[in-house]
Amino acid sequence: MPRTSLFTTPLPPLLLFLATLQLLPYTTTLLLGPSMLPTIPITGSLAIIDKTKWSKGDVVICKNANPMNPGLVCKRIHGVEGDTIKSRGVDKKVTKGKVWLLGDNPSNSLDSRSYGGVESGLVVGRVLGILSLRGWKGMERRNFDGDKR
């Protein structure tokens, strides 16, 4: 019976890759929940995050501002400081130092429509792509009308 080495299994290279990301301006997080469907599969997706930059239209990871529910959320930046957003039929201005976050699945997303603008300092970074059992999927930036750019 052939012996297998620890280095012939896919786990060590994956762990090495993830550890290397932590040394660069990148990080990872596991994504759960339906708020970004169909853009991001509901469970078991690993987001690769660029911590250096983000802009309007990007899918981002953000620290949850709700102290009763700490952790991270994954949403799309729909508006930035100075933008006027129509939310539930009312025009709202995104105030200084804030971003407006929306899930791509509006019927199942708790986002800025419920809690308002979020401090831009809570944004961890933009999602470069998703690694899942189905493979790699890069993220596209969209304008605030939902069209891909």
TrEMBL record:
Keywords: Hydrolase, Membrane, Mitochondrion, Mitochondrion inner membrane. InterPro entries: LexA/Signal_pep-like_sf (IPR036286), Mito_IMP1_subunit (IPR052064), Pept_S26A_signal_pept_1 (IPR000223), Peptidase_S26 (IPR019533). Its main location: mitochondrion. The active site is at S35, K75. It is found in: Mitochondrion inner membrane. Residues 92-128 form the Peptidase S26 domain. One of its GO terms (cellular component) is mitochondrial inner membrane peptidase complex. GO terms for molecular function: serine-type endopeptidase activity. It comes from the Eukaryota. GO terms for biological process: protein processing involved in protein targeting to mitochondrion; signal peptide processing. Belongs to the peptidase S26 family. IMP1 subfamily. This is Peptidase S26 domain-containing protein. It comes from Triparma laevis f. longispina. The lineage of its organism: Eukaryota, Sar, Stramenopiles, Ochrophyta, Bolidophyceae.
